Amino acid sequence: MKYKLVRNRKEHNLKNHAEIKGIQILNEKNLFPISWLNQQGYCEYSLYLEHFKKIETMPTQAMVEGVKEHKKLEDKFNEIAVECTFSETLGYSKEEKIISREFFVLSEIHGIMGYIDEIWMMPSEFIIIDDKPGKIPYHSLINQVLAYALAFKSMIGEDNRKIKVALRERGTDNIFWIDEFDENNENSIKFLINRMNGLFEGIKPFIPTKNKNKCNKCRFQSYCEHF
Q1: Hey, CA dihedral for 120, 39, 211, 217, is it positive or negative?
Q2: CA distances from 125 to 5, 96, 176, 180, 185 (A)
Q3: Where is the PD-(D/E)XK endonuclease-like domain (predicted)?
Q4: Which residues of the chain have pLDDT under 70?
């Protein structure tokens, strides 16, 4: 087993969107961060408030703790990992297990980009892991890791190794949800990403959550006309 640090974001000439905070542009194509799918599953309208209206709020305690824990895991990995290109890493994985973290993926055709928390590349399959607090596989978390798999699949070309997606309790080895990235999962996430792209292109409206419990905990509640 080898640990490889792949720094491939610099290969892309990304530019900031002039109006939407967080959107990047590549060859005149909008790319949104895959992590937004988690927020979309909580409340789609909060994406509008944060990235279109550019409303800034203080991060929640959970967000602060998440960043700290994430940084701790990244630093620990970087101490033992060897820097390598994507193509080299993909080639090595045909012979032995390779583990990488903070693995940048981008799919121009689907308009998505992001960083996979951890990926296992093995001779027979790939396993894409997203670290999350808690142990409940909410649909929003599943959608996020499915989108990582979709972007990764678009990057590996004719490599037909099986791709699996998993959610792991942050800071532990506990994988509490795992599934194969099969045709049904691929079609499902493509449908959602198509909706997301429609939101950012102004074709579709942002829909607020109807769950008042979510509203009561939302950091944008004082700015929201639906609260």
Answers
A1: positive
A2: 19, 11, 19, 10, 17
A3: 53-225
A4: none
Nearby residues of 113 by Cβ (< 8 Å), 6 or more positions away: 14, 24, 31, 32, 33, 34, 104, 105, 106, 107, 151
User: CB–CB of 150/190 below 8 Å?
Assistant: yes
Please report which residue ranges of 156-224 form alpha helices under DSSP H.
183-200, 212-217
Neighbours of 198 (CB within 10 A): 12
- The CATH fold assigned to 2-221 is Lambda Exonuclease; Chain A (3.90.320)
Question: What pLDDT was estimated at residue 91?
Answer: 96
Give the residue from 167, 120, 173 showing the smallest Cα distance to 144: 167
Q: Are 105 and 151 in contact (CB under 8 A)?
A: yes
Give the whole-angstrom CA distance, residue 147 versus residue 58: 27
Tens-place pLDDT, residues 65-81: 888 888 888 888 889 99
| pLDDT one-digit tens code per residue, 157-190 | 999 999 999 999 998 999 999 999 999 999 999 9
CA pair distance 197, 210, nearest whole angstrom: 22
The domain segmentation of the chain, as residue ranges, is 2-221
**pTM, two decimal places:** 0.95
Asked whether 24 and 31 are in contact (CB, 8 A), the reply is yes
Residue at 222: amino acid letter: S
Q: Helix (H) and strand (E) counts for the chain?
A: 7, 10
Q: Using an 8 Å Cβ cutoff, are 217 and 54 in contact?
A: no
pLDDT of 16 reads: 96
